[in-house]
Amino acid sequence: MPSGRLIKQVVYEGMQFVCLSVPVFVVIERFASLMLHVTGDLTAYWLVVAASIAYVTSISLLVWVPIRYLILKKRRILTDITQWRPTTLAYVILCTLPCFVILIAASKVQVDKGPHYRYDHFSELPVSLVLFSLICMDIIERINPFCLTGQGDNGEMELNMSGPVLTHPEQVNSVSGRLHSERGQNGVVANVSATGRWRDPEPASYLYSSSHSGSLHFLWSRDMRSEVFAHSFLFWMDVVELVRMAGVPDVFYSGWIFAGYILAFLSCLRLVLTPHSALLPLAGFLLQDLPFLVLRLALTSVHGFVTPLFYTMKNLLICLTFIYFNFMTKLRFFRRESMF
């Protein structure tokens, strides 16, 4: 009888292959239906469908299966890679990129034929399926090394989270051991930093309390395996909104469709980096927030509020804070501790 680990791995491999093939089949079938509507030729429909089957079969046998085999067999050529994920890179190139190219081609075909041939702007199912499969691939890659039963090792799982997570909060060092142990007359511990200035208590003491006592101890229940799902979806909400905006008819049937899907694909390349990579914040700034901000401002000036103002403000705020805390604070003017 096969072991539970083997069954889990087989299920994961099957889910990853479904995430690879199903979006391609769905998007190309919708494109084939569009060609049938535009040309009225049933042969064109079946040629496009046959091309999709041939494409998925070819990439599966020539690229996907060899990569997964090398990873499962722990071949050194892939296991030595620690800063990026080969499987995810292959998925983004083999699935996400062709789907976005087909969506752009669908827009181009309808625009060239004229307003009377506007049949489908791919607003919901194909786009949502592509991004949902992308998120599922990310989740499977993160939880694959860990068990699905028993209590999770939160310390190890937090290394796979995409966002900043406090794992080992430490108290601020006091001026000396004597000041740390002394108490004031009112019984409050002196909280003085190394510069001699007052410091507020560390917020981690109440953000991540480890108390599990009392009748309501279940309220402190926490497992990082379930939090991976929430973090993964939140990580992609900005890209989801940009792709949704590209499906708006005023944008889809114009030249802006190229900028929308190209920037969305560049943002998907962040998935190739490991969640604990030090390059992830910079990649998020250069591949997502900065270009998304420029695109949203341009689209708002041309088509109005086709995208919520919330995401524009989010991109603006993240760009400003990234530049300030990573570059401007290193200037001599901002290193003066007497300011604030």
UniProtKB/TrEMBL annotation:
Keywords: Membrane, Transmembrane, Transmembrane helix
Residues spanning the membrane: 12-32, 44-67, 88-109, 253-272, 305-327
Keyword Transcription assigned: no
Lineage: superkingdom: Eukaryota
Signal peptide: none
InterPro entries: Uncharacterised_FAM23-like_TM
Coiled-coil regions listed: none
PANTHER family cross-referenced by the UniProt entry: TRANSMEMBRANE PROTEIN 236
Name listed for the protein in its UniProt record: Transmembrane protein 236
Lineage summary: Eukaryota, Metazoa, Chordata, Craniata, Vertebrata
